[in-house]
Amino acid sequence: MRTSELWTSRSQVVGKTHWSVVTMWLSAVVLVATPVSAQSTPTTMIDPVSETRDIIDLIGELEGERDPKCYATAGRLEDFMYGTPLSTEARFVKNDLQTRLASEVWRRASAIAVEAGQTEIDLATLRAGLDGLPVVTKELAGGWSVTAADGAKIRITDRDMGQYSSVAFGLRAILAARQEALLDTRELPLAMGDEATARLKDVLDAYALGTLQRADTMARQADRLEIDRATLEAAWGAVVASPGPVVETMAATSNVSSTPDFAVLRAIIDQKLAAYSEYNHLTMPVFMRNLQVYFARFRWPRDAEEGEAFRSVFSATAVSFTSDLYLRAEKYALTGGRRSIGLADVHRAVQDFLPHEVNSFEDVIYFPGLDRDRRVIVEAYDLDAYRDSGIHWLHLSLALDDPEFPATLELDPFAAELVVEAGAQFGVLALRLAGEAAEAADASTLAVVHLGTAINEIQGRIDAEAASVANPSTADGFSSAPEARFAMDSTFFTDVTRASGIEFEHRSADWLSRSIRSHTAPRNGVAQLAIPPAFGGGGVAARDLDADGDTDLLLLGGRGNTLWLNDGSGRFHDTTRAAGLEWTREVDGFPGEPRQPIVTDFDNDGLPDILITYVDDPIRLYRNLGGARFADVTKTSGLGGDGAVAGPATALDFDGDGLIDVYVGMFGDYPRGVLPTLSRHDENALPNRLFKNRGGLRFEDVTAGSGVANTGWTQAVGHTDLDGDGRQDLIVGNDFGVNAYYLNRGDGTFEDVAAELGTDKPSYTMNIGISDLNRDGFPDLYISNIVTFDKDQSYVLPGADTRMQFNPDTMGTMRVVEANDLFISIVKEDRLLSYGQSQAMGRGASSTGWAWDADFFDVDNDGDDDLYCVNGMNEYAVYSDIGPYKTGGEGDRLVMPVSDRASNVLFLNHDGRMHNVSARSGADLLGNSRSVAYLDLEGDGDHDMVVNNFHGSAVVYRNNAEKLGNHWIKIRLIGDPATGVSRDAVGAKILVSTANHRNLWREVHSTTGYLSVHPQVQHLGLGGDTEATVTVIWPDSSREVFEDLAADRGYTIVQGKGIIEPVDTASP
C-alpha cells in the first residue's frame, strides 16, 4: 500500500541556514544539530569533496549563468529535442549509459596517464582514452557531427548542443562516475584537467543527442508514441556501441570511509543553493506573496506568532517528507544491491509517497487514478516559483543534518535532483490543500490546523490511489473500410497549380507587418515584442458562387482577397474586382488582415453570401446579387469588428429559427499591447461574440447572458451536435487558454461541459476537425495543438498572471512538438458520456509539428474518412537577430523558417488506425501551410485540394483516386425555412449505408478545421458498392430515407419534397 511512514512523526527539524530567503523562512525552526564543522570526518586519506569539487564547480558556473534547471525541466527538454518523449525507464537507462561510459573512458585515460607518469588526465590523454569510440566533431561550418558505431553520420545543430549542454547531463554523468569510483574497491582514477573534462562532457552530450535522434526515428517508424527502454538501448548500441553489462553489487570496501557524512551530496546542495541565489536574487516579500497568492491561494496569518507557528510546522513537515522519501529510496537501492541511490530508486519511492503524472506543459497531476474531483493539478509556473527560492534543496540539507538520520547510502547526482523535485511538489501540494482546508472552514487566514488537515487529506488520497483500479481514458476503436484498396502506383495527389490558373501569394497586411517589426517593449534592457507572434494566416473557401454548377474559390490574404471562378474544367479566373470584393482600409489605403471566410446563404434567397472577419477592422459582409456579383452591406450588418481582433468564426442556426447566426472568436487584443499570461486558463482576451440573424442581413449581438463570451485567445471555432439532441453546439479552441465545449440548451444559452467530457486539457489549439470515425452517430474530433518549450526564456517567481515574454532571440530557439488530440466519443445507451483520447494515430518519418488545419475527408473513396494535416512555422527564428531568417527593409522578401519534419501530413484510414502515408501522398509540401479547402475541381468524383500557405503561394492538388475504381455519391441538401431549417441546411446530418458500409456520416457545417470552408455538397466514398441508402436527419429532427440510390452521381434533396430532377449538386 502506498503510505508515508514518518511525515508527521518528527516534532523537531534540525539544520543550518543559507542565504536570505531561506534563512528568514526557517528562522522559527528548532536548531539542535551538531554544527557541520564539528561532525566526524572520514578516516580515509581521500577527501570526496576535493575529488569532485572541480566538476561540481563547473555545474555551478553553468547554472549560475543559465538558470538552475530542475529535474522536470531537464526531462522535458529531452522529450522536446526531437519530438518523441522518453519513458521513465528509458530516461533512467540513458543516464546510466552516459555514466557507465564516462567511468569507462575515465579509467582508460587514467591508465594511459599513469603509464606516462602524469599526475592528472590532460586533453591529449583523454582523447587517447576515447580511441575506438565514435568520433565527435565540431564542424567549421557550424554544428556538430557524430560518426556513429554503425557508420552513419549524425548531424547535431548548435542549438541542440547548446541547450542540451546547459542542463548539464554530461557533467552530472561525469560527477556520478566519480562518485561511483569513490565507492569502488579499485584504485581511484586520476583527476581530469578542465580541458579534458570539457571534452568528455561534449562527447557524452553528443552521444546522448545522437542516441535521442536515432531513437526518435525508430519510434516513429514503429508508430510508437514514446521511446521505451529497448528502443533507447538499441539506439545507443547503434550510435555508441554497448559498454557491456553492468555489475550492480555492493563493494566490500571503498575508497572513502564507510561513515556516512554525505560529503559529495552536501557539496552539490551548496552549489545549488549558491546558483539559485546568484541567478534569482529573491526577496522574502516576493516569496511570501507567492505563498499566499499561488501556493496556498489563501491569506497568511495576520498574527506574527501564528505566522511563525505555521512556518515552523510547514518546514518541519517538508523536511520530514524529504527525509522519509530518502529512506524509502535507500531501501530500494539496498534491496537491489547498489552502492548509491539511483534515479529508479527515487522514482519508485516518489510514486509510493506522492503518486502523480507530469504533462507536456510540466504541470503535475496528483492522484491521477482517482476521480477528477479528487485530483489536484499544480501548474508548472507555481512549481517554478517555489523552486526559485531553492528551499527544496535546503530541506534536503536539513534532513542530512539530523544526527538521527539513519541513511547509509548517498544519492547520485541525478537522484538528488529527483528527491528535491519531489520535495518541491509536496510543498506546493501541501500548501494548496491547506488553503482549500482554510476556505472550507470559512477561516480568515491560514492556520496550523489547516496544514494538518491537508496532510491527512494527502494521506487519504494516497491510500485511495493505491486501492484504485486503472481506468484509462482511451478510445481506440474506429471504423475502416473493409477493403484494402488504397495501393497506388502513383502518388495520391498531383500539383496542378500552374494548370489551374490560380496565382495567389499570401502576405500579412501592411499594418501588421510593420507592427511585428517595430513594436518592442524593453524589459530589463532586453527588447521584447509588444505583440505576440501573429502568424495566423488567411483562410480559403470553396463553393459555387455563380450558380454554374462548378465549385469556385475564395482566397484570403493581406495583399487583398481574390475570388476565382471555375470554368468547369478545373481552370480558374480571377474575378475579384468585377465581383465587387475589393476593399482597402480608409486609414491607410491598404487591404486589411483577413482571417475567416464564411460562405453561406444568410438571407435564404438561394444565393450564398460572403462574410470575412478582419483583425482590428470591421467584419465585412457581402450580399450575393447573382451572376458572381456582390454588394457590400457591412455598414448595416451590425457585426462590428472595428477595434477587435476577430479571428476564426463559424455560422450556425443556434436558435432554430431558420436563419443562420454567427459566432466570432477573438484572438486577444494585441494591437493595443495586451499579451497573454502564463495561466493555463488565460482569460485576458476580448470576449468572443454571438450574433443573432434578424433577417435582411442584419445581426444583433446577443453575447450577454449566452454563456459563450469566452475570453481565451481563440484560434479555432466549430459547430456540431455534440450530444445528439438536434441542436448545434459550439467548440472553442484557444491558443492561450483551455478549450470550451458549449452545449446548446435551446433557450439561447450554452453551458461549457469540457470538464465533464474530459476535453479540458490545456493546449495551444489551432484547429477543430470533425467526423464520426466510430460510426456511433456522435461526432469525433481531431484537435490540432502544439506545446512549446522556450528553453532559453526564464521567469523568476512566475505566477498565473505573469505576462508572457516574447524575447526575439529566445523565440529563435524555441522548441515545438506535436500534441494533437484525436477524441473518440464514448457512448452508452445512445447518450454521450465523454471523449477518450485515441492512440490509433500513425507517426512515420514526418510529424504534424506546428499543425494548423486538419480536416477529415475520404481521400480514396473507400468508405472511411482519412485526415490531411497541414503544418507550418514551427520555429520562431524569424524574429531572432541570431537566427538565419531576416526581415529586411521595406519590400524585402520574408523568408520563413521550416523544419524537415514539418511537411504536410496525409493519414490514411486502414485497419482501425490512421497511417502516415505522406511520403507517397504527393501533397507533403514543406512550407508554412494554414488552411485547406476540399473540392471536386473537374467533377470526376474525388476530393481535390487547395492549400493557402502563410507568406507563400497557394497550391492546387488534383486527386488521382479515380485510378482505384472506387465509387462515390454526392448529396446536396436544401432546407425549408418555414420549418425552422435554413436553406443551406446547416446542422443537418446524412447517414449513408451500403452492402459493405453502415452509417457513413456527414454533418453540414458552414466552416470546419482552421479558417476553412468546404462545399455545401457532401461527398462520400462507397468503396466497391454501387448503390446506397441515404437517411437525412434535418435540424428540426424530421427524417427522410432514400433507398437504392445509384453510385457515382449527385443528388439534390429538398426538405419535404425529396430528390429534385434533374440532379444538380453544385449550384447554390
Structure at a glance:
Helices cover 28% and strands 22% of the residues.
- Rg (CA only): 32 Å
The average pLDDT is: 84
Count of helical stretches: 23
How many DSSP E strands? 44
> Largest sheet, order of strands side by side?
11-10-9-8-39
> For this entry, what is the oligomeric state of its chains?
single chain
Sheet-strand content, in percent, reads: 15-25%
Distance between the termini: 67 Å
Low-confidence sequence ranges:
1-44, 243-253, 874-900
Largest sheet: 5 strands, mixed
Shape, principal axes of CA atoms: globular
Helix content: 25-40%
Structural class by sheet pairing and helices: alpha+beta
Polypeptide structure, described:
The chain has a five-stranded mixed β-sheet with strand order 11-10-9-8-39. With 1068 residues, the chain is of the alpha+beta class.
Features:
globular; 28% helix; alpha+beta; five-stranded mixed beta sheet
List the helices and strands and how they pair.
Blueprint: H1 20-25, H2 48-66, H3 71-82, H4 88-115, H5 123-129, E1 135-138, E2 144-147, E3 153-156, H6 158-166, H7 169-182, H8 194-221, H9 229-239, H10 263-280, H11 284-295, H12 304-335, H13 343-353, E4 356-358, E5 364-366, E6 376-378, H14 380-387, H15 391-401, H16 413-440, H17 448-467, E7 493-495, H18 497-500, H19 510-518, E8 540-543, E9 552-555, E10 562-566, E11 572-574, H20 576-579, E12 594-600, E13 609-614, E14 620-626, E15 629-632, H21 634-637, E16 646-652, E17 661-666, E18 689-695, E19 698-701, E20 713-720, E21 729-736, E22 740-744, E23 750-752, H22 754-757, E24 764-771, E25 780-789, H23 808-811, E26 815-818, E27 821-828, E28 831-837, E29 851-857, E30 866-871, E31 905-910, E32 913-916, E33 929-935, E34 944-949, E35 955-959, E36 967-974, E37 989-993, E38 1000-1003, E39 1012-1013, E40 1018-1023, E41 1027-1033, E42 1039-1046, E43 1049-1054, E44 1058-1059
Parallel strand pairs: 8-39, 36-43
Antiparallel strand pairs: 1-2, 2-3, 4-5, 5-6, 7-35, 8-9, 9-10, 10-11, 12-13, 13-14, 14-15, 16-17, 17-18, 18-19, 20-21, 21-22, 22-23, 24-25, 25-26, 25-27, 27-28, 29-30, 30-31, 31-32, 33-34, 34-35, 36-40, 37-38, 37-41, 41-42, 43-44
